[in-house]
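Researcher: Can you fold this with carboxymethyl coenzyme *A in place?
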Amino acid sequence: MENKIKQTNTAQLIIDGKTYELPIYSGSIGPSAIDVRALHKHTGHFTFDIGYTSTCSTESQITFIDGDKGQLLYRGYPIEQLAEHSTFLETSYLLIHGELPTKAQSEKFTKTITNHTMLHEQIETFFNGFRRDAHPMAMVCGTIGALSAFYHDNLDIEDNAQRDISMHRLIAKMPTIAARAYKYSIGQPTIYPDNSLSYSENFLKMCFAVPAEDYVVNPIIADAMDKIFILHADHEQNASTSTVRLAGSSGANPFACIAAGVACLWGPSHGGANEACLNMLKEIGTVDRIPEFVARAKDSNDPFRLMGFGHRVYKNYDPRAKVMQKTTHAVLKELGIKDSPVLDIAMELEKIALNDPYFVERKLYPNVDFYSGIVLSALGFPTSMFTVLFALARTVGWVSQWNEMLEDNTQRIGRPRQLYTGATERNYISINKR
Ligand code: CMC
């Protein structure tokens, strides 16, 4: 990556009457950043920023979010335009390489990804070691990590060609692993990849076909799946992406790094929120119970939160939520689902919350997960698969960010510091004197 940050100003920091000059850098858009890298060396102080709310961990040229405007750009292109006109594989090319592919580049990339869809057959043995009722995320996390044991022929991260092969393998094999985890969890046989189909069609077939029957992919459903993957493909330095970068900063292999990302994504505050949101909508059950749940969400003594609401960065409507809402309606119409109690509750809940001063003052808007659970459930996925689908799509963002980090020669091993408040030095006490 060619570094493009420019020093545009200087900040002054005064500690004990002494003034320190700190460079201020600007990017192409978005807030500028104060460079504190030399702070400890010159002042002996650290910065304190739990949750990294004011910290840039890196320079990046992949994804931009303006949380106040509700804007999300992949390599400069608005997410709404990509969801409308692009495909997941084209968007993947864009995220990795920085530009939309030409026709020839697109064909070559699609062919490369398609050629890597199969798993080493011994991974089947590996799957058989999981408990029959294992959570699909547990299987995906474990299997992605295990890929490094199967594809160790190309793990030299200093070699561009080997990095490319690993990235292609991850993007291509993720749907196969995700579908395998699903089939295993419901006790059905493996459906092998069908390379005559598109990325999303193939994934749907691997999930929902059975050997005993013909399976025809519905193009409208495949298109919705592709849009959902585009919406989830990247989201700058979120928790799982930062985890991938941190793991990668030590020189760990890409399969290990992506497994770390999958693990981080699993939590209910991150990728697990769509599962939690659908469960919440089902628990609410009827529109008349919404006020009770809104009151609970507002009660500071109650840990309950409206799942699918609020975001660390978006202080406006999450642009992905708008596309997701439209996709939800299209899928329900295509499937002929006229009555959807959860959709009715979601729409009413959204209306109530968007007019409630508690949510307005805190700028809490629906995020991507508010509608995604409804649409994924309509597509036939159980809630335990929701985060897996998120991980599948986000793999593209993770490998793009990991690759960018390795191409950036200003990167160093990630190693935050701490403000220690534990015991000061003391002498060991033998057990009979304690
Ligand atoms: N329901 C009720 N109150 C909320 C909610 C919510 N969903 N989210 C935030 N708040 C309140 C919070 O209690 C706090 O109030 P106060 O200032 O009175 O203490 C204020 O809003 C600020 O919240 P915060 O926890 O400081 O915000 P954060 O940036 O640390 O958390 C979040 C962001 C996404 C974890 C949080 O909004 C949340 O827990 N939302 C529900 C889970 C969810 O939908 N997660 C999916 C995120 S989008 C997918 C992804 O990128 O992974």
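Model: Folded with carboxymethyl coenzyme *A in place. DSSP finds 18 helices and six strands in the chain.
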